[in-house]
């Protein structure tokens, strides 16, 4: 691995200069403008990044359109070989990529190394394999002497727009099926976490991916690279993971050209714990579903509902576990929770804590900057894992997505009541149910309005399954064949037999 940008302890060694990747070349933005990327643990600059404009997007689209002509016609088996190679190269660079993801997001390196980078690699190997077995339909129209068969074809150039919380996982979750299906792409990573997308471009080049198949354009969202990608007439499909309001803005811009859209958006996910659940297990997993990645995971269960019989015990034990979490240096393998992504985001999360108190909520633990942090980290974006009780369901803290290490816990009495309360939100991404009553588990799962439901577990993913949200949490599904539904277009061919 090259010289570290940041050392354990937070000392910055150097500032790296990132570039766009267009048509197989690493280049600066046409305007030459750059913006700064900071280490969340100290808020010091670790990278400068090209601020791309319309001309840069134009160049990327041109190269992706050109590459599409070749890539879309390449046999699936050939395309799969490239994806498999990328998967292998990601694992070869496991240490480097985990380190960079930890530094860019401020997340614990243990999480990046143990889960995210291996998963980014698996996204490629999974879709490389899956693509070989995707089939289409055939219909025999026997009363009319005809047959119909369905051809599945790539769509064209895709704009893949990603957030900052799980950068490489979410980028590869889009890039792998997009390329496997024969499309070419332009990636626009979050301005806050541009590093691993740039590394992915390096890996693609090393894997010999033809020029222009994968492009990376850095910049901002509105009136910048993101919006210029969405509004470009030659970009035929847009996959976004981000906030609901961003989905709405993109939908407005994309409507002009009726683009295909896939949105994975915000959530305010209920975590329902019945009295018959295995409490120890529910607590172990709830700590993760509450505070993993500083609570900056769209699937975090931020509204915890606990059956009244076990409410006091559950709260006491949850608080005890939250207090035991090790918050600190992202690069320390022992760290459970790192820094929040930015000062602005920390401010937003803290504002919700003020609202909670004003609305009569009680912060049982957390809500403050951890006291034990070394001097070097005092300028970073820190917050202790926070547990709030005593709020009613209509207050903003229970209704709105906070996207930080903050959970609310509320008691409930009956199954009907908790289903209604869980559904009392305009989001519908995921839900977790803890019970040992099989019938109840099925009953509740079928009535909860969410695209992904876990029973007695959390974050367990099989990449063949449909992933996405209901209501304001998304549009469409990705995963397995559902990704191919999005990244391909179907064409029916009808033949009248003589
Ligand atoms: P944002 O919506 O702010 O940004 C997501 C991406 O969209 C960024 O690259 C951003 O650019 C870009 N963008 C913003 N506005 C526009 C626009 N008008 N046109 C084109 N692109 C635009 O989300 P965050 O990065 O803050 O991520 C957090 C959000 O993501 C949370 O709401 C979370 O729930 C959601 N999320 C959902 C997941 C899911 O699977 N459902 C998974 C993970 C996160 P830039 O920021 O650089 O300006």
Automatic annotation (TrEMBL):
<dbReference type="InterPro" id="IPR029510">
    <property type="entry name" value="Ald_DH_CS_GLU"/>
</dbReference>
<dbReference type="InterPro" id="IPR015590">
    <property type="entry name" value="Aldehyde_DH_dom"/>
</dbReference>
<protein>
    <submittedName>
        <fullName>2-hydroxymuconate semialdehyde dehydrogenase</fullName>
    </submittedName>
</protein>
<dbReference type="GO" id="GO:0018480">
    <property type="term" value="F:5-carboxymethyl-2-hydroxymuconic-semialdehyde dehydrogenase activity"/>
</dbReference>
<dbReference type="InterPro" id="IPR016161">
    <property type="entry name" value="Ald_DH/histidinol_DH"/>
</dbReference>
<keyword id="KW-0560">Oxidoreductase</keyword>
<dbReference type="InterPro" id="IPR016160">
    <property type="entry name" value="Ald_DH_CS_CYS"/>
</dbReference>
<dbReference type="GO" id="GO:1901023">
    <property type="term" value="P:4-hydroxyphenylacetate catabolic process"/>
</dbReference>
<feature type="domain" description="Aldehyde dehydrogenase">
    <location>
        <begin position="27"/>
        <end position="493"/>
    </location>
</feature>
<keyword id="KW-0520">NAD</keyword>
<feature type="active site">
    <location>
        <position position="264"/>
    </location>
</feature>
<dbReference type="InterPro" id="IPR016163">
    <property type="entry name" value="Ald_DH_C"/>
</dbReference>
<comment type="similarity">
    <text>Belongs to the aldehyde dehydrogenase family.</text>
</comment>
<dbReference type="Pfam" id="PF00171">
    <property type="entry name" value="Aldedh"/>
</dbReference>
<dbReference type="InterPro" id="IPR011985">
    <property type="entry name" value="DH_HpaE"/>
</dbReference>
<dbReference type="InterPro" id="IPR016162">
    <property type="entry name" value="Ald_DH_N"/>
</dbReference>
């Amino acid at each position: 691995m090259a010289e570290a940008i940041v050392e354990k302890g937070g000392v910055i060694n150097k500032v790296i200069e990132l570039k766009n990747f267009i048509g197989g070349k690493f280049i600066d933005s046409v305007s030459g403008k750059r913006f700064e990327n900071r280490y969340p643990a100290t808020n010091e600059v670790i990278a400068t990044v090209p601020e791309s404009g319309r001309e840069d997007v134009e160049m990327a689209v041109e190269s992706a359109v050109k590459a599409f002509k070749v890539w879309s016609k390449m046999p699936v088996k050939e395309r799969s070989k490239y994806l498999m190679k990328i998967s292998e190269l990601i694992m070869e660079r496991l240490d480097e990529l985990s380190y960079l993801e930890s530094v860019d997001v401020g997340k614990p390196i243990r999480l990046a190394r143990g889960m995210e980078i291996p998963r980014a690699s698996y996204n490629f190997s999974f879709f490389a394999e899956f693509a070989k077995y995707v089939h289409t339909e055939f219909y025999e129209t026997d009363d009319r002497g005809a047959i119909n068969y369905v051809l599945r074809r790539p769509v064209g150039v895709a704009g893949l727009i990603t957030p900052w919380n799980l950068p490489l996982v979410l980028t590869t979750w889009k890039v792998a099926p997009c390329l496997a299906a024969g499309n070419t792409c332009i990636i626009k990573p979050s301005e806050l976490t541009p590093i691993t997308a740039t590394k992915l471009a390096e890996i693609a080049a090393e894997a010999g991916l033809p020029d222009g198949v994968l492009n990376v354009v850095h910049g901002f969202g509105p009136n910048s690279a993101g919006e210029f990608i969405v509004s470009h007439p030659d970009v035929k499909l847009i996959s976004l993971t981000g906030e609901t309001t961003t989905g709405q803005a993109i939908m407005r811009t994309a409507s002009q050209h009726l683009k295909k859209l896939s949105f994975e958006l915000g959530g305010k996910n209920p975590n329902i714990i019945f009295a018959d659940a295995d409490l120890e297990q529910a607590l172990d997993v709830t700590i993760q579903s509450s505070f993993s990645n500083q609570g900056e995971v769209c699937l975090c269960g931020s509204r915890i509902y606990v059956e009244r019989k076990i409410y006091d015990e559950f709260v006491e034990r949850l608080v005890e576990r939250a207090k035991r979490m090790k918050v600190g240096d992202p690069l320390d393998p022992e760290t459970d929770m790192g820094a929040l992504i930015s000062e602005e985001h920390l401010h937003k999360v803290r504002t919700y804590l003020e609202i909670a108190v004003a609305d009569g909520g009680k912060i049982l633990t957390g809500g403050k900057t951890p006291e034990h942090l070394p001097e070097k980290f005092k300028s970073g974006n820190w917050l202790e894992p926070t547990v709030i009780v005593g709020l009613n369901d209509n207050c903003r803290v229970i209704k709105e997505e906070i996207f930080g290490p903050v959970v609310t816990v509320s008691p409930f009495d009956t199954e009907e009541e908790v289903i209604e309360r869980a559904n009392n939100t305009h989001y519908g991404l995921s839900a977790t149910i803890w019970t040992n009553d099989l019938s109840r588990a099925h009953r509740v799962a079928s009535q909860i309005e969410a695209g992904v439901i876990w029973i007695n577990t959390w974050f367990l993913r099989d990449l063949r399954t449909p992933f996405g949200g209901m209501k304001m949490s998304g549009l469409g599904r990705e995963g397995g064949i559902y990704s191919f539904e999005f990244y391909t277009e179907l064409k029916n061919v009808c033949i009248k037999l003589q």
